[in-house]
Amino acid sequence: MPKVLRINPSDNVAVALEPVGEGEEVEVSGLKIRAKQAVPPGHKLALSYIPRGSEVVKYGSPIGKATRDISTGEWVHTHNLKGSRGRDEVQRLPEA
Amino acid sequence: MKFKGYRRPDGRFGVRNHVLVLPTVSCANKVVHVLKSALPEVVAVPHPYGCTFDVEELCRFREVLVGFGAHPNVRAVVLVSLGCETTPVQEVYEEIRASGKPIEVVEIQKEGGVREALDRALEHARRFLYEAKDDLREDVPLSELMVALECGGSDAYSGISANPAVGEFSDMLVAEGGTVILSETSELVGAEHVLAGRAASPDVREALIEVVKRAERELALSSPGADGLYLAPGNVEGGLTTIEEKSLGCAYKAGSSRIIEVVEYGRRPSGRGGVVVMDTPGYDVASITGMVAGGAQVVVFTTGRGTPTGCPIAPVVKVCSNTPTFLRLSEDIDINAGTVVDGKESIREVGERIFWEVLRVVSGRRTKSEDWPYQEFAVAYMSFAEKRVLYGANSEELFGA
């Protein structure tokens, strides 16, 4: 497996399978991404610019929304991504 | 394909031949503890339940008691009662007896105390163990196998290695006519669109969406301060950020087969040959207890952070998502799926390895969790929030909230 894995072609984040150092350049499905911060193993890295309020996609499905503008190569976690489900204001499911 | 199992009078097949000693109320635990130390071959399940006026709690506990007592992995049962508990001991006894297996009840108040009850319970347990001695396993088709799927201590590798590999296993088992149970409804929130597409009928699809909706409301009501972050600290440290992300990784365990039924906690599924969704909480021990009460004979449990959880009456096959955790907890974990991350095996290859290991385990091989004398047991009681979700508007009056 690669050092950083994009699980689904439509994902805008990839998973670090090994520690990625700050400033390190990694190759993810043909893209060359420079890590803005260190990314611990198992954590996510943005593959493109994700504007605040837009969806973060992993496994080909939305996993929540960006709470800040996320630039390419940024570490994506609780500081810039929040889930959309099970929250007080969002108690209704989309009609699947 | 076949495994070697024990035929039971009710037509089901066991993968173990346990003599189960079960207190009907926690007040009887002492007898059960001492009996276990005197007779280590029995399975003893001390627990904190059995006396409540909460109708929901009583029903669930009663269902789990009957589910465990009548379970195909159990050959014979000794119930230990105090005598004055709210558990309907006679009804539980009758329902377990209806499965055709030997059962005895020992009542502490009637026997004249712990010492007398212990003597009587030991007498029954020794006889049951003696009777079980010559039982033989026979060939059983895999269509008789129901496997509980569980994940606990998940990390970001769980959705990449262990869960997809278990998904391969699930597909292989279902292809043989077997059944898997997917559980932990709160960990389907955000993944239900993936599963709903595989529902065998519109009714099943609707039931699935409904239980997930219920779990989502419950999450929001039960921890308003969490603001959407329904993950354990270890999950977050491991790289998971949202419940949707965790759920999508979890749902891989069920593979790509049809969802044939959605059942309530602890209930026995009526169908087979596909995926059953059971509405259980995200608490591993209570979730496993519910699926085993529903008749699952074996548990396949994926973990990233590592966990020693077992079940008193069903073997638990532990599958680890990453090699470092597998090596650190090697005495508690059976299979390493971290080889996928290491680039040494494909998901399919690990799935096949799980399949063959489960076949060995259900035919008698002990799992790592079975080497310890006590195993975890917990009944999923309805939380305050769950009741509010169920009773809706009336909850204001009922609970004064």
Number of DSSP E strands of chain B: 14
Percent of residues of chain B in beta strands?
15-25%
Radius of gyration over C-alpha positions of chain A, nearest whole angstrom: 14 Å
| Percent of residues in helices of chain A | under 10%
Neighbour order of strands in the largest sheet of chain A: 1-2-5-8
Give average pLDDT of chain B, whole number: 93
Ranges of chain A where pLDDT stays below 50 over 5 or more residues in a row are 90-96
CATH topology grouping of chain A: Archaeosine Trna-guanine Transglycosylase, Chain: A, domain 4
Question: How many DSSP-defined strands of chain A?
Answer: 9
Question: How would you sum up this structure, described in words?
Answer:
The complex is a heterodimer of chains A (96) and B (401). Chain A is mainly β and 96 residues long. In chain A, 0% of the residues lie in helices and 32% in strands. Chain B has 401 residues and is of the alpha/beta class. Chain B has two domains: 18-134, Rossmann fold, CATH 3.40.50; 140-371. In chain B, the strands form three sheets. In chain B, strands 10-11-9-8-12-13-14 form a seven-stranded parallel β-sheet, with helices on both faces. The interface between A and B is large, with 33 and 40 residues.
